[in-house]
Amino acid sequence: PHDWPQFNFDARHSGSNTLETEISPDTVTSLQLLFQTKLPAVSDSAPAYWADGSMRRQEHSLFFTAADGTLIAISGSGRLRWQTNPPPGPRWTTSAPVLDPSRRFIYSYALDGCVHKFEIRTGEEIRDHPWPVLVTRKPDVEKGSSALSIATDSRGVSYLYATVAGYPEPGDEGDYQGHVVAIRLDDGSATVFNVLCSDRRRLLGNGDCGSRQAGVWGRPGVVYNPSDDSVYVVTSNGSFTANVGGTDWGDTILRLPPDLYARRGQPVDSYTPDEFDALDKLDLDLGSSGVALLPRPGETATTLAAHAGKDGIIRLIDLRNMSGRGVPGLAGGEVQRLPLPQGGGNLSAPAVWNDDQNHTWVYFTNDNGVGALELVAGNTPQLVARWHGGEASNSSPVVANGVLFCAKNGRISALNARTGEELWSDTRIGNIHWQSPIVADGAVYMSDLTGTVTAWALPNKGAFSK
Hints:
Blueprint: E1 16-17, E2 32-38, E3 48-50, H1 57-60, E4 62-67, E5 70-75, E6 80-83, E7 98-99, E8 105-109, E9 114-119, E10 125-126, E11 133-134, E12 142-143, E13 149-152, E14 158-166, E15 179-184, E16 190-194, E17 222-225, E18 230-234, E19 253-256, E20 269-271, H2 276-281, E21 292-294, E22 304-308, E23 313-318, E24 336-339, E25 351-354, E26 360-366, E27 369-376, E28 382-389, E29 398-400, E30 403-408, E31 411-416, E32 422-426, E33 438-440, E34 443-447, E35 452-457
Parallel strand pairs: 1-29
Antiparallel strand pairs: 2-35, 3-4, 4-5, 5-6, 7-8, 8-9, 9-10, 9-11, 12-14, 13-14, 14-15, 15-16, 17-18, 18-19, 19-20, 21-22, 22-23, 23-24, 25-26, 26-27, 27-28, 29-30, 30-31, 31-32, 33-34, 34-35
């Protein structure tokens, strides 16, 4: 048995479950409906899954989903096990929960602007100091948009990351600034990196920064790269001070240390497109998605990342020198740029798959379908489009054992990850927004805007047999 502990499976947010063995291109056609369960509220985010190791895994494994501050746990057979009674808050959230590495606790963002900690089996909230931990002082104009995530750095210290953005309605208004909070799980201490006014290392209040916006709202939030022991954050429309030593980082990919400590407000490195001003004015957020970490074929270290935002341009970045000039704060420097193979813009988190032939694939989905590219190594690495098509949407794709799962309004499908051939589909889901599927322990789970969770599993195999 294995967990799906956080958005897109791991701290890299690869979207690739490397532990799945039951579901494959040969068996996925046998997936059958396991259950459909109505939730107490609509969850507009991705779930987490905790696998119980007992003989009664179907009853004791837990599926967690968050609905506007309420955390809901249902069993592997679709029964409601518990739900929290969150503190009231002014507005809404699309954040997603994350499992503690100890597998004893689960964390969720609530509308009071705090991250809360709960016991996995009972849902009892842990309220010893410092929990719950405040991540925004302005929940009326700032919200937790992205998924919570957890990463363990090279020293063995585990951090929980929460990112903050503004509300899209009405019109990204209000005194909000994108920022990231890192919470040490061993002592609950927190550090902050403000995307605007980055020289101020605290949670900003009203009037504390003259710049506004630059929220962090892409589905993955914070992506951890163990190869360079760094976290990567992508920001949205906002001011960018295009010079070394600047403190405003709109429409930028930031490389930060795991504890977010930034001397004089400077990241370790950064990448900003040359056309950052046009992206800002045309509302083409770079921060509509996160980076996809791409290992070069035959190498263990990950030194490349791909990213595509609302403008639909894929940018291949060398993580060892993001701007090409050795310092943060300068624009340009990408290794390659090319449009999404299927056209259109990108609002989903990409999925990365390393196949059994040591090839590296990356997948982007939008309303035009799926675009699949392969990383071709050489003196100058390049992404090459291999296929595009299928039916998808802004729901983020995931891949398991050579099967790519995609969803759109009213339909979930499984494709051959190498060829794009459709292998299986089901039309018993409702419309979706930020919901995306997970594949864990031999089963597939998907929530939708009707407040329903649907699950499929292989007959007499996988998640619920032992």
